[in-house]
């Protein structure tokens, strides 16, 4: 069973959206979008092995897993996610696809480089020395250590 991991970020102007970002809400919103865009057939294809593998509400980072043969259906439906629902509240948002990889590790490596680039852009826009020091500290902390590695789930050929 070949898998693909889709790394996304949740974009929202509503600061309350961060508090409702949870696995279940993201999974339901993505499934709903797939159903609207590709119908029952597309939803059935994408539902096999689909799961939210990682979610960081603080940074808005989401890692979705699906089968290799249906990742294009999944990716094409992501722009149609318009809101997340939590406790009967709806929060407008969008999912921006950052990277598609064959392993969790390749997505981790991409995310580190992506965050470094974002921090460098912030560094260039600093207005004072205190801001510069904080961002430089963040840049230096961007590294991948063995403790962060998730064994068993990373390899392209893993079975479930």
What does this 3D model show about the protein?
By secondary structure, the chain is of the alpha+beta class. The chain has two domains: 1-102, 2-Layer Sandwich (Alpha-Beta Plaits), CATH 3.30.70.3250; 103-143. It contains five helices and six strands; from the N terminus they run βααββαβββαα. The protein has helices spanning 17-20, 23-47, 71-77, 104-124, 129-140; strands at 3-11, 51-56, 61-67, 83-86, 89-92, 94-101. It has a four-stranded antiparallel beta sheet, with helices on both faces. A two-stranded antiparallel ribbon has the order 4-5. Strand 2 and strand 3 form a beta hairpin. The longest helix is centred in the first third of the chain and has 25 residues, at 23-47. It is globular. It starts with a strand and ends in a 20-residue tail after the last helix. It is found in: Nucleus, Nucleolus. Its main location: nucleus. Pfam families: RNase_P_Rpp14.
